[in-house]
Amino acid sequence: MGEDFRQLITRHQLRGIRAGGLVILVTLHIGSALPGLLGGLDAYRHPWIPLAAYGLLTLILGGSVVLGLDGRPWPRGWVPCALAGTFVASVATTSQVPADHYFVSSFHWSYSLAGWFTVVLLGHRGPLVSGAFLGAHLAVTVALLLTVEVPSRSVGASMALSVLSAGCFQMTIAAGAKLLLDSSAAIGQALRAQERVRTRIAVARQIQTDQRRRYAELNATVLPLLTGLAGGSLDPEDDEVRHACALEAARLRRLFAESDCTFDPLVHEMRACIDVAERNGTTVQLAVRGDPLELPLPLRRALLDPVIAALAAAGQTARVTVVRGGDQVRVGVVVDALRDRLPEPKANGIRVRTVHAEDRLLVEAACRITARPELSDRPEPPWPPAWPSWSPAGRRSRT
Q1: What is the average per-residue pLDDT within 247-257?
Q2: pLDDT at site 58
Q3: For the chain, where are the alpha helices, taking DSSP H only?
Q4: 30 DSSP 8-state letter
Q5: What is the spatial distance between Cα 210 and Cα 350, in angstroms, rounded to a whole number?
Q6: Alpha-carbon dihedral sign for residues 303, 308, 310, 314
Q7: How many whole angstroms separate alpha carbon 213 and alpha carbon 231?
């Protein structure tokens, strides 16, 4: 997935939480605050102030709807500006409300509405942050009330009950939103664990399939050879048998090298085959040109098969070249032996060329790459590499 599980789940949850909060806010803004505003214009000392405050809150509400429904984090600076505008609009409207209408009348619509703005803008940060803003807003509102008139005990109780009911409801919504968002971490962790299990199952199945395929290939080539040698039907002194053994040994070494993690798989597998040739006393020169490419495994096998067959038939010397440039990959070998039986390429687009000259044989396999594979992100090994010291040839020539 492009995004982390937790981020994706949090985004969807946040989108739903904001959508629910905005539905409540829009409903209260139009269905409760607007009638209270229009019905109390005569009671306000300066009606244009609550009208302007309502217009400012409408702009903030519209911006919140546009910016919040996609579930992404609020744009930088939006929340402080929106909260400041909400606070100013609420305090300005409260300053125009008669003292006996604070908290308990529809004329004082701005207090409850500002609380829901707080839930929408700060609900994702938990009840403590939302409660701090609501507490500061309540303190300023109570200070405005006390500067105008100290309410009686019965009126004060009604005001406190109204504030408590509205505040507890809003704090509960904020706490629930925070708990829901926090659950995304556990959900994401469970999904990652489930994905790891699925990946392991898929990898295990692929490994099992590859092993069965490799065993089938070995049964078709190596097993008859070993059976013949063990049963005596094949003579180890026969040149054809020795060539077949050298060829199968090189293929086995290449098979083992295919599972290695290396910077240049093609050259790594070629070196494994060269090691087998050197065990048989052949001095091999290897020349590599061009940047490493991560070719598909079937394509690497098709490129190396003819070269491995010629290398297994080499007598005293062999020269191997790997050239990668432009849109082509070429692997060739020149050996001091003549053999006409070479394996056919097993991948589409592989061209095999053989040239006989005196006592030399040139075998070259080439393919064209339509889309250049990306380079591996593994670190490049030191060059030149450390060659094994057990080669029968005593040393290996390099170019």
Answers
A1: 80
A2: 92
A3: 5-28, 34-39, 48-68, 78-94, 109-122, 127-148, 153-231, 239-257, 265-279, 297-312
A4: I
A5: 23
A6: positive
A7: 26
